[in-house]
Amino acid sequence: MGSDNTDGRPREENQPDRPRDGDDDAVRTVALEEVDQRIVDLLSWILDTETRAKIYVFLLANPASTAEEVATGTGLYPSTVREALAELHDEERVTREKRVNDGAGNNPYAYTAIQPSDLVGGVVDQVQRELNTIFTLDSILERPSDGGSDLEPVTITVDDTDPTESTESTDHIDSTETRDEPDTSTETDGVGSSTPNRPESDTDDATDSSVAGDTDQRTDDE
């Protein structure tokens, strides 16, 4: 009784059926069911999305499958599967060939995933390029840790004064000062007089002529 369960059945009956030797299809099915989620996550990182990872895993277990068969096996939409398969084929991560049907109609493509070693080998180059880019940025952004040379920040002063306005303002001030200066070209004869001085020679001639005229007039009267 020690080997039986509480329901009375032997313990061996509760164990899952193990595949027989040589049964390749059963081995593939069990291997697919036992794929760890961490491997799926890793494939999702390599293949960019979880959808593509599921398709890749399905094709590893079921090579030469059509898009409809992949959609049925993964539970994904057929349109999503066809689009993902086209991208994976362009990236050379799956291969395809026409499946020849006996009946009439179009021959669909049958897809097969490349080996995981080839998949990882192609990703190594991509990872190496990304790491080189990161290291290059680190070397460019690296700064000396001694702190011996402290650089002051650069200060930029912007003067929004128009040079033309500054020149016109200066000319206006100069012309105003010129108008305010007194006129010194004339002299006043007396207080409140602004009559310019006449030449002395003209004044003397006029005086002499007046005196001579008065003398002649007095002579005639006598």
TrEMBL record:
The annotated regions of Polar residues compositional bias extend over 185-198
Q: Origin, by domain of life?
A: Archaea
Q: List the residue ranges of the region (Disordered).
A: 1-25, 141-222
Locate the compositionally biased regions of type Basic and acidic residues: 169-182
* Transcription regulator TrmB N-terminal domain mapped to chain residues: 50-116
Query: What is the protein name given in its UniProt record?
Result: Transcriptional regulator
